[in-house]
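Problem statement: downstream parser choked on a complex file, so we are re-checking the raw output for the adenosine-5'-triphosphate run. The parser issue turned out to be on our end (a line-ending mismatch), but while we're here, posting the original submission so the record is complete.
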Amino acid sequence: MIEELQQNVHAQPPLVTLKNVQKVFQSGGKDFVAVKDVTLTIEAGDLLSIVGPSGCGKTTVLKILAGLYDASGGSVQIGPEGAGSVAGHDVGMVFQQPLLLKWRSIIDNVLLPADILGLPRKEVRERAHDLLAMVGLKDAADKYPYQLSGGMQQRAAIARALIHDPKLVLMDEPFGALDAITREKMNLELLRIREQSNKTFIVVTHGIQEAVFLGSHCAVLSAGPARMADYFAIDIDYPRPLSVKTSPKFGAYVERIYDKLDMSA
Ligand SMILES: Nc1ncnc2c1ncn2[C@@H]1O[C@H](COP(=O)(O)OP(=O)(O)OP(=O)(O)O)[C@@H](O)[C@H]1O
Ligand SMILES: [Mg+2]
């Protein structure tokens, strides 16, 4: 059923394919099923929002995509079928907290993945400055994390996730720690960055409105262990001003997510 929904909304070959992905953790000598059955396809240029109750397995799914965990069952494919699977350099990750190193300047924080991957510093330095300008931090390159607000730090973390030019950017509750106004601004920022960077994003969020506002597509996961409860394309044109949130179409998508989430769990 969900697979049928996905076939209907995708015309091109997918960039990411998850088929019946499962994750079982060993916990106190017992098996614990964290992800039961997730099947997803994501096309290049999509922004997929993932919503689901706390503890249902969203971070686990992102970590599988990032190559930090192996799936216990099913398959994960990044790139066209047969072109190999997850390669670290194809994926950038933004966590709930900015996780900047406090002893490194902002530019050096942005350069960290490039240093780890051994990319030539001279070339990536220029790119780091361009990315900082793109996220609105042109003048913060030589500052240190403590000199930046939470929203600015999170924007630096987004620049860091893009430094090695990954195809796919994974964001785990990227704005969860921010106040409501900064969060709305960051939503607009993310859509602007997406437009400029032309990348594929997967954004996990607890915010149902945020999921609809950001996403070209939305996956709803059931209460843990994660299964696909719904998947649909969000047919609202970009660029999206904040005022789209008051449109009936927007409200209908929000309602659809509420209906699919098991709010009693
Ligand atoms: N490394 C691990 N070992 C054992 N159990 C784990 C591990 N990581 C996660 N879990 C369990 O798997 C389930 C899913 O965790 P996960 O962090 O993916 O949930 P989530 O949907 O991201 O939750 P939240 O919305 O609160 O961030 C939880 O019950 C969690 O306790
Ligand atoms: Mg999580």
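For whoever reads this later: The pocket of adenosine-5'-triphosphate (ligand 1) is lined by residues 25, 27, 32, 34, 52, 54-60, 224 (CB under 6 Å).
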